Amino acid sequence: MKQENDIEDKLIPVNGTALENKIEAILKRAEEIDISFNELWNPDKCPTEYLPWLAWALSVDKWDNTWDERTKRNVIKESISVHRQKGTIGALKKALAATDVDIQIEEWFDYEEESERKPGTFRANVYSRSRGISESEYSNIKDIIEQTKNARSQYDLRIYLANKSTTPYIGVASQSGNTTTVYPFIVKNIEETTSCFIGCGYQSVNTITIYPKNSIALSD
After folding, report:
1. For the chain, what percent of residues have pLDDT higher than 70?
2. How confident is the model over 44-92, as pLDDT tens digits?
3. Nearest one of 147, 142, 146 to 158, comparing CA atoms
């Protein structure tokens, strides 16, 4: 009886190949997974364990499993926009900014030194805040630049170590001192002062009664 029910649930005929039966089993298991496909395709709601697969589906060029969750989601969200502008400085800035890299792109015509202005070149100035850059981070930055820039441009990657902090610190110091000398209190003279106050008051009240004009005429 169990075998008959299994046959009724199968879509592949009894003469199906081993590969076809395995594909059917995988698809059947996929239907049993309780998850919304709308969430799977949403970089903000996709479960963390599925983010690498979403990155692959959206053609993320550079992926690092050591990134924190926020960085992974940012890279996925910017992927479509980066591919639309790929080969431009704008796409390069977006791709690097998604990985939380403090970077400044300087094109050749913006160089201060006129002798270094070579058409088709640019500088990628990376600023590290309060720490250095690991070999893995350096490799990621270089790979992103190589995969996003146009093929003809040459670039110079520069790393600047700057002790920058996003948290302001304010310090105030104050020091003061007073020297006070207290001597014994000695009463030499006792003075008494007497004050005299004179007051006067006056109050006057006048009562006036006003009658209507017609009533005065009748009384006459």
Report:
1. 75
2. 999 999 999 999 999 998 898 888 899 999 999 999 889 998 888 888 8
3. 142
pLDDT in tens, 124-139: 888 876 566 778 888 8
Return the SS3 of 161. strand
Query: Among residues 86, 87, 130, 126, which one has the least CA distance to residue 106?
Result: 126
Any idea what the Cα angle at residue 56 is, between residues 135 and 144, rounded to 5°?
35
CB-CB contact of 139 with 157 (8 Å): no
Question: In this structure, are residues 79 and 59 in contact, taking their beta carbons and an 8 Å threshold?
Answer: yes
Residue 125 near residue 107, CB atoms below 8 Å: no
Q: Strand, coil or helix: what is 18?
A: helix
CA dihedral of 93, 98, 103, 109, whole degrees rounded to 10: 0
Q: Locate 148 and state its tokens.
A: 């996003």
Largest CA distance in the chain: 139
Residue 117 has pLDDT above 50, yes or no: yes
